[in-house]
Amino acid sequence: MLLEGKIAVVTGGTRGIGYATVKAFLEQGAKVALFGSREETVKIALEKLNEENADYPVIGLHPNLMDPQEVKSAFQTVVDEFGRIDILVNNAGISQRDKIFDYNIEDFEMIMNLNVNAVFICSKEAASLMKNQGGGVILNTSSMVSLYGQPAGAGYPTSKFAVNGMTKSLARELGKDHIRVNAVAPGVIKTDMVAALPDEVIQPIINTIPLRRVGEPEDVANAFVFLASDMASYITGVILSVDGATMS
Ligand code: NAD
Description:
Strand order of the largest sheet: 3-2-1-4-5-6-7
Family: Belongs to the short-chain dehydrogenases/reductases (SDR) family.
Order of helices and strands: EHEHEHEHEHHEHHHE
Shape: globular
Number of helices: 9
Oligomer: single chain
Helix content: 40-55%
Bound molecules: nicotinamide-adenine-dinucleotide
Number of strands: 7
Distance between the termini: 35 Å
InterPro entries: NAD(P)-bd_dom_sf, Sc_DH/Rdtase_CS, SDR_fam
Keywords: Oxidoreductase
GO molecular function: oxidoreductase activity, acting on the CH-OH group of donors, NAD or NADP as acceptor
CATH architecture: 3-Layer(aba) Sandwich
Protein name: 7-alpha-hydroxysteroid dehydrogenase
């Protein structure tokens, strides 16, 4: 049990990488608060976890991550329920594929608001709690596009470059408070959207990946477990690629 007794918050925990991370944390002995965007999806995720194991110590909330007051109050609910917060995983995120000439500023702002501003808001709130507790771990979901960019939807890689910048900067700022800050940069991961792609679309992508498969959400979750655990106690400011050595 790598996370025995730890209390974790996972944003975007209702499906995909976030859900796999919630499950992996629970399996490793953590108590978890999963955050989702809507009450209904949070309820479905909790029911699914309950079917896996009725004893999992897990709660679900749906604060607006872009509203500092709602985030503060949600974190307080977690502290009231579990006593403290040791680990925050900033995982909620959206992607966009618009070409620059069709890209409007509202869409660009929307992606920056969730993928960057919400990470700042949640990290600030968590860091304040963790500093008072004597330490903690903040983890961010970046992306392989934060290394290479992508040929359309410039807002998405821009947001993930910003996540890397925040990760490295907060690691340097918060180290003295015993707060470690790291990110995982997934490659192509088999979430619902990727799983639904037809063979003729996915196979050419797989052919370019040295490990010759797309990643599973559990591959990313395992990296989060390691980085959240005391096994990574001297690791901070790192962007860990989990991408099968995908090059672009
Ligand atoms: P997903 O769409 O399956 O899940 C996204 C999660 O974010 C959901 O739980 C959803 O509720 C939450 N979310 C979306 N909009 C929200 C909002 N406005 N407020 C609060 N929560 C919101 O996606 P995923 O593929 O599991 O992605 C999770 C993270 O991984 C994202 O940050 C994404 O950028 C990153 N990522 C995914 C891949 C991939 O191939 N799937 C690759 C690299 C990085």
